[in-house]
């Protein structure tokens, strides 16, 4: 796998491409009273022009409680079928900005909030990325498997993809 670190505009474009393609990531928070991270699957609402990731979530959640105590988060995205992965670390901000809630409201989100858009527990979660790393396959899973097998048999290094840091 070749290394390809990306900066600024290229990094932002890669981040947006991967998150929009994968969509659901495991959002990890760090409970102060637990030994392990707390992870939940979350569907992003937007990756903005600064590279911030936006979500709608509930004030009643363990995620909310953990972020109130420690705003560090990690998000792991995986597209197993294409061998594409993204690891993001950052800081979380919570708000109850009604305009943003309205902007992100849709039928999928409605399923999570029984009281609808006026549910007093709806919160906005903004993740400001501090560190991101990706692994991106150049071909599909089957071709990658054969390249890895061929490389193991022949001893030749075949280019099976890219990995690198995203410096926003």
How are the SSEs placed, and which strands pair?
Elements lengths: L1 E2 L2 E2 H15 L1 E6 L8 E6 L2 E2 L5 E6 L3 H8 L2 E8 L4 E12 L2 H7 L2 H4 L11 E16 L3 H14 L6 E7 L1
Parallel strand pairs: 1-10, 2-10
Antiparallel strand pairs: 3-4, 3-7, 5-6, 6-9, 7-8, 8-9, 9-10
Roughly how many Å apart are the termini?
22 Å
What is the radius of gyration?
A: 18 Å
Tally of alpha and pi helices:
5
Structure summary, number of beta strands: 10
Shape: globular
Poorly predicted parts: 146-150
Mean pLDDT: 89
The percent range for strand residues is 35-45%
Structural class by secondary-structure content: alpha+beta
What this model shows, in words?
The protein has helices at 8-22, 62-69, 98-104, 107-110, 141-154; strands at residues 2-3, 6-7, 24-29, 38-43, 46-47, 53-58, 72-79, 84-95, 122-137, 161-167. The chain has 168 residues and is an alpha+beta fold. Strands 1, 2, 3, 4, 5, 6, 7, 8, 9 and 10 form a ten-stranded mixed β-sheet that branches. It is globular, with a radius of gyration of 18 Å.
Keywords:
29% helix; 5 helices
Summarize the entry for a quick read:
The protein is of the alpha+beta class and 168 residues long. The chain contains five helices and ten strands.
């Amino acid at each position: 796998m070749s290394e390809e670190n990306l900066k600024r505009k290229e990094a932002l474009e890669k981040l947006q491409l991967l998150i929009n393609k994968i969509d659901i990531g495991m959002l990890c928070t760090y409970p102060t009273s637990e030994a392990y991270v707390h992870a939940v699957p979350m569907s992003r609402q937007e990756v903005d022009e600064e590279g911030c990731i936006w979500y709608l979530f509930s004030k009643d959640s363990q995620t909310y409680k953990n972020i109130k105590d420690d705003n560090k988060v990690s998000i792991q995205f995986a597209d197993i079928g294409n061998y594409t992965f993204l690891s993001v670390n950052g800081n979380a901000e919570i708000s109850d900005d009604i305009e943003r809630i309205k902007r992100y409201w849709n039928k999928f989100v409605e399923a999570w909030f029984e009281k609808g858009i006026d549910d007093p527990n709806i919160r906005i979660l903004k993740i400001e990325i501090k560190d991101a790393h990706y692994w991106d396959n150049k071909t599909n899973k089957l071709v990658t498997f054969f390249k890895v097998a061929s490389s193991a048999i022949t001893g030749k290094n075949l280019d099976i993809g890219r990995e690198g840091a995203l410096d926003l």
